[in-house]
Each structure stands twice: as structure tokens, then as C-alpha cells.
Design brief:
This is ARP5 protein. Its main location: nucleus. One of its GO terms (cellular component) is nucleus. The protein is mainly alpha-helical. It has 15 helices and 4 strands. The strands form 2 sheets. It has a two-stranded antiparallel sheet with strand order 1-2. A two-stranded parallel sheet has the order 3-4. Helix 10 links the parallel strand 3 and strand 4. Helix 3 packs antiparallel against helix 4, helix 3 runs antiparallel to helix 5 and helix 3 packs across helix 6. The longest helix is centred in the first third of the chain and has 45 residues.
Length: 347
């Protein structure tokens, strides 16, 4: 079966595709224009605050360096040549002319930064709502920073550029057209033939339990060889799981592997495996229709609660059954334990 599913054509013809429900209301295209305008205003304010903070930091650093250079210039004016030359070496400068050139540049930079700060405080509100056509949102789940947010930030950034060379505007990418319904689909392929294997190997899903074949072998080993031969003549399969295609053949294969050579067995499949349990309950109810022990009144249930059903005679009370010991292994045990210490430890 798995070999068939390796063929792409077979997969396309047999895979089951199920469309899961989803809502178009999650798309950003349905967001009102007022919400988009508010979002852009928030982005603008955030960029203004960011640029203002960068200008203040730059102004503080330039002012500190300018104060240092002015202090060195005062040493020259006071005639303290030794300290002046020592300070020039620390500043990695060669002459007083170079020092004066740096002071002029820093003074101009400090003045320009102050002017920008004053101008940004005056021009706080900038109308950029209709500066570019609206594009549909591509972030239906509402992440922290969608593609539209990035484009808006790139749009506002030139308004607050800090002496950066103008870069070429990127070419607008073509928005992909896709069907969102395809992202909410469930495909069932090889899972339909792999799922029943869990009945035989529960470890596939992390369950520490025995499968059907192991359970049958465990039960049969509790009886003698004669009793095993009788039991395997009436292996009865019922229940919803027995409707898996090929389950009866799989049980026969497992029995063939665990039974002795040339031994016989019979596997029977129920005619109505899904309704067998209901038929059994119906027959029991009809048989106990006139007996009080087969029923419980609403008054008793409301008074004693659901836990009372566990004690009721009609419930599936757990009754421990003592199975006979394994006859074949018991017969072989003395021979294996001969001349090898404590038989109890061997067992």
C-alpha cells in the first residue's frame, strides 16, 4: 500500500482533502481607513520620538567634545604650552590650526543640531495619510510588525534623515495573489492506512501498552497446549476497529506466526461489529425487564450520585480471575535450572 502512495498520480487521485472553516474577517483589507490612518499617525509619532532621541544624543556627544577642544584652546591662550602640546598629542592633532578647524566644524554641527531639534518640535503634525496608495495587508494574524508597517516606516524615514546619502527607492514588489483557503486544508493520505497499525503497535503514539497480537499470545500462554488448541478455534472479532480493511487477514497472519507448525485455528468476524455491543445490552435489558436489580430509579440516582452505578449489580464490576500457570514453561523450568543455584532467582 505504501508503495502505491509513492506515485504522485496515485496520491492525487486518492488523497482526501478537507476544507477547514476560516474567516475572511481576519484579513487586513477589511480594516477601516480610520484605523489605518490612526496606525500611521502612531508610526509617525514613534519615528519622531526616535529621531528626537538620536538628535539629543548626538548633540550631547558633540557638545562634550567641543568643550574639550575649547579647554585645550584656552591652554594655548593662557600660555601653558607644555600642557597644550600634551593635550594635542592626546587628541591626535599636530597643530593649533587643526585644532581651530575641528572647533569650527563642531560648533557648526552643534548649531545645526539645535536648529533641527527646534524645527522638529514645531512641525510635529505631518499629514502623510494620502501620500501613497493603500495596499492590502498581508499579515492576517496581526503580527507585531507587518509588511505595511515596514513600508510606512520607510516612507516617513526621509523626513527625519540624519545627514545620510539619498538611496535609490526600491522598486515596488508585485503583491502575490494566493488563495487563503488553501492554507486551511487538511490532507489525509497514507495516514488512513498507517493509523490502524497503532492497534498492533501502540508504541507508535507513545503508549506503553501491548498490541492485539501480544495480548493474544499472553493469554494463550496462560493455558496448556490442549486448551490453547481449543481457544484458537474460535477467535471472534467484533467492535468498530474490526471494520478496518484486511484486519482479519492480519490477525490470521499473527496467529500463524505464534502458533506451532501445522496447527489449525479459526478467525471469525462479526456480521455487525459496530452494533454487537448494543445488541448485547438490548438482550440483557429485555431479560431483566421485570427484575428490580437490573434498573435504577431517577430518585436513587439523584440521591446517591453517579458513583453508585459502579456498585450496582448491572455495572461492569472488576472481578479478578486466576488463570492457570503456563504448562509448557513450568515443565521446562526444572531442566533449565539444574545445577545453577537458586531456582527462585531463576524464575
Amino acid at each position: 500500500e505504501l508503495q502505491k502512495w509513492r506515485c504522485p498520480e496515485y496520491y492525487e487521485n486518492n488523497v482526501h482533502k478537507m476544507q477547514l472553516p476560516f474567516s475572511n474577517k481576519l484579513l487586513g483589507s477589511t480594516v477601516a481607513s480610520e484605523e489605518k490612518q490612526e496606525k500611521r499617525q502612531q508610526q509617525l509619532r514613534r519615528l519622531q520620538e526616535l529621531n528626537a532621541r538620536r538628535r539629543e544624543e548626538k548633540l550631547q556627544l558633540d557638545q562634550e567634545r567641543l568643550d574639550r577642544l575649547l579647554y585645550v584652546q584656552e591652554l594655548l591662550e593662557d600660555g601653558q604650552m607644555d600642557q597644550f602640546h600634551k593635550a594635542l598629542v592626546e587628541l591626535n592633532m599636530d597643530s593649533a590650526e587643526e585644532l581651530q578647524s575641528y572647533i569650527n566644524k563642531l560648533s557648526l554641527s552643534v548649531e545645526q543640531t539645535k536648529q533641527k531639534i527646534l524645527q522638529s518640535e514645531v512641525n510635529i503634525e505631518v499629514d502623510v495619510v494620502d501620500s501613497k496608495p493603500e495596499t492590502p495587508d498581508l499579515d492576517p494574524l496581526g503580527s507585531e510588525q507587518s509588511l505595511e508597517d515596514v513600508e510606512s516606516i520607510n516612507e516617513f524615514e526621509p523626513l527625519f534623515a540624519e545627514e545620510q546619502p539619498e538611496a535609490e527607492k526600491p522598486v515596488a514588489a508585485v503583491q502575490p495573489v494566493f488563495n487563503l483557503a488553501e492554507y486551511h486544508q487538511l490532507f489525509l493520505g497514507t495516514e488512513r492506512i498507517r493509523a490502524p497499525e497503532i492497534v498492533f503497535q501502540p508504541s507508535l503514539i507513545g503508549e506503553d501498552q501491548a498490541g492485539i497480537a501480544e495480548t493474544m499470545q499472553y493469554v494463550l500462554e496462560r493455558y496448556s497446549k490442549e486448551q490453547q488448541a481449543i481457544l484458537v478455534q474460535n477467535v471472534f472479532l467484533t467492535g468498530g476497529n474490526t471494520m478496518y480493511p484486511g484486519l482479519k487477514a492480519r490477525i490470521q497472519k499473527e496467529l500463524l506466526e505464534m502458533r506451532p507448525f501445522q496447527s489449525s485455528f479459526q478467525v471469525h468476524l462479526a456480521s455487525s461489529p459496530v452494533l454487537d455491543a448494543w445488541y448485547g445490552a438490548r438482550d440483557w435489558a429485555v431479560e431483566h425487564m421485570t427484575r428490580e436489580e437490573g434498573w435504577i430509579s431517577r430518585k436513587d440516582y439523584e440521591e446517591k450520585g453517579g458513583e453508585y452505578l459502579k456498585e450496582h449489580c448491572a455495572s461492569n464490576v472488576y472481578v479478578p480471575i486466576r488463570l492457570p500457570k503456563q504448562a509448557p514453561r513450568a515443565a521446562e523450568a526444572p531442566g533449565r535450572a539444574s545445577g545453577s543455584g537458586n531456582p527462585g532467582e531463576q524464575a
